[in-house]
## 1
Amino acid sequence: MASDAYATGLALVALAESETSAVSDPVYNRGTQYLLKTQFADGSWHVRRRAVPLQPHTDAGFPFGKDQFISAAATNWAAMALTYATGKGS
C-alpha cells in the first residue's frame, strides 16, 4: 500500500514517544513534510477505507463520506505527529 496520513502519523508519534528518533531527525522531518503536503485546506487528511463494509454507512459529519472514520483517525495521528514536530508534544 502507498503511504497515507494514518500510517505516517502513527509511525511518527511512535518514534517521538519512544524517543527512538528525535523530531529534528531528517527521517522525522521527511514524514512531517509528507503530512503537510497531503493535508487538505480544512486541516484534515483523506485516507481510503480498508475494511469491508459490514455495517450501513452513518454520516458523522467528518469530510470524505464513506472514508470519514479512517480519515478522522488519520487526521488525529497526523495532528499529533505535527504537534511533536513543533516541540509542543508531551
## 2
Amino acid sequence: MLLNLFGSGREAMSAVDTAWLRMDRPTNLMVINGIMFFESAVDYPRIKRVLEQRLLSHKRFRQRVVRTGTSAAWEDDPDFDIDNHLHVVALPGAAGRHELEVFVNEQISTPLDFGKPVWQFHLVENYEGGAALVVRIHHCIADGIALIQVLLSLTDKDANARATASHRKTNFHADEREPDDVFMRFYRPVAKMYAGALRRYAKLLGTSYGLMLNPAKMLEYTTTGLSATQDLARLAAMPADPRTQFKGTQSSAKRVAWSESLPLSEVKQVGKALGCSINDVLLSCVAGALGGYLAERGDDVDGLEIRASVPVNLRSENKLDELGNCFGMVFLPLPLGVANPIERVYEVRRRMGEIKGGYEALITLGLLAVVGVLPDMIEQPILEYFSTKSTAVMTNVPGPREPIYMAGTLVKDLQFWVPQSGEISMGISILSYNDRVNFGVMTDKKLVPEPARIIERFGVEFEKLVFATLLSVGDAPPDPELAELHLAALQLVGRNRTTV
C-alpha cells in the first residue's frame, strides 16, 4: 500500500529514516563524514571498480530521495553516474594535515545534492606521500553501525584481493571491549506490554520491529512495563543541559579535528589496573579534555557535568549491515568537574552502570518512529526539545583489529565524525583500528573555532591517568601487565609528550 502511495517504482522510506532526513538544517547537516588514510597512492580506476562492484550492490546508493508532503520515498536515479559521486582532488601547498583539514571543513559545511543519491567520495591523491578518501553519506541512508559494515565490505585483508570481487558480508567485531558494555551490547526486547506496544505502532508506521529484536538473550532483559514507563517520564522531565561555551546560537560552518592515535594495549592495561572497562578509561579522558578546555577559557567547571547523547545499536547481530537507521539514544552525564583522573574514571564507571539497565535507547527509537510520520511543524519542536537535553553526540565504535586494504592499498588509519541535531553543536567520535584508538571532534565554528584545542587534550588526559594509576598501585605486588604500563609511561616521557 505504501508503495502505491508514491507510485510505481518508488519505495516508501521508513518513519525513522524520514525523521533523520527531516532533521537536516543549514546549521546541522545530517551527514556522516569520514576519512580513510592510505599509506601510498591509490589506483583510481581500481577504486572505482571496487565501488561499482561492492558499494552499488546496495540499491540505496543508486537511489535518490523523493519528498511528498510529510513522507519520503526512494526511487532509482535514472541518470545515475558514479562520476557524480567519486571525485578526484589534489590538495594545495604542502598537501599535509592542515590542507586536508581545510578541505574537509569546506565539505562538511556543504549540503549534499538531493537531486542525486545522497553520498559522495573524494579521493585526495596527494596527501602526505599517500592518499586519503573523504567519505560523506547522508544519515537517512543508514546509521553509523551499518555504514561501518558497508565501508568495511569495500576492503580486503590483503593487497592481492581481486578489485572486482563481489560484495561480501562483513562481521561485527567488538575488539577487546567488554561484551556487556553499553556501547557494544545490543539492547534486547523489554516487557511484553511495552514490546507489544512498540510492535503495534511499528506495524502501523511501516517500521521494522524485528530490527529491535535479538531473541538470544530476550529473557535476560525482560522486566515490568512499569520501568519503561518510568524511564519515559524521567526523559520528559530531564532538565536542559547547562549553558557552556559548547552551547549557543550556531552558524552554518563546521570545523573538525582528529587526534594522534593511542595504543589500545595501554588503554586496556590502565583499565585492568583500575578494575574499569576500556570505555570507562576513554570517556574519562573525554570528560577531562572538555573540562580542561572550558577551564582554560575562564569557565567555572567545579562540579560541572554535561550530557552526551550516545547512540546504542538495536540490531540483531545477523542484520548489522542492513541499511537504514536502527538505534536509540542514551544520555550519559560526563563529570567535567572532577579534576582527579582516577576519581573521574570511577565516576564514569558508576554512571555507565546506571544507564546499562534502562530503556532509554528503545524509547528514543520509538519516539523517532512516531515523529517520522508527523507533520514537520510538529516534529521539529519535539526534536528541538530533546536536543536541549545534551551538549554533544558521542559515538564509540570498534573497527577492524587487523590492517585492511582497499583497492590493493594499505589503509593506514580511519577517522569519522557524527552529525548533530537541533541545539547540539558538538560531535565526539572514538574509533579503534589495528590496536589503536582515534578521537575525532566536530564543532560549530562560531562556538568552538579550533576543535584541535580539545583534541590535543585527550592524549594529555590519558597520560595523567597513566601516571596516577602507577602511583596508586605503586605498593602492590609486581604485575607483568603493570610492568608493561610502566614501560609505556617511560616511553611517553621519552617522546616528550607528557605535560604533568
